[in-house]
User: What shape does this take?
Amino acid sequence: MSNSLYNKENLKNLNHLKNIVPDQLKSFSEFNQAVLKEGALTKKEKEIIAVAIAHVTECPYCIDSHTRSAKAEGATLDELVEAVFVVAGVEAGGAVTHSTHIQNAVDPEASDVLYGRSNLKKLGKLGKYASDGFKGYSNFSATVMKAGKLSEKFKEIIAVAAGIATQCPYCIDVHTKNAIKAGATNEELSEAVMVTSALLAGGAYAHMANMIQSYED
Assistant: This one.
């Protein structure tokens, strides 16, 4: 039994699935192919999004597979790094925006609605009580969203996908508005969400390789 939980050779265990759950395996494969084919977003763009979202799901198999696919579609390392930094910014933003619930928790007059857009008005409290950290976050967030090798529009599309993956309603709301303002279409945003859906499913799928390995050890 290997001491490493993540060996690429573990993926051979997924071959068992065609005998155990052939229908599920076939439908997953068809789902994945449909999501990643050319559409309003190019295959290259979809693979870049897939690499970014794999850093939310923290699936090393997905990172490896989709990085290779993105490279094959022409993505550069600079583009992939920028995409992952967008995810880092959204992850940080999720923590920052959810801090508004602390203010609600200590306010006896706060609304029973846990997720109101008006909560974001309370972010100033975080800036007041942790000013240096909040300034650092604000600069980081603005920097990762600036156009570079990837356009501002595409970064906002990635941010929407990351907001969906992290289940942060504030992030979804803010970045959807920013994406539309930058020129993103409903088709582009919808396809990005479907890539996210496939990556969330893919993380569970790929990790079955570990489950099978553990079962057979």
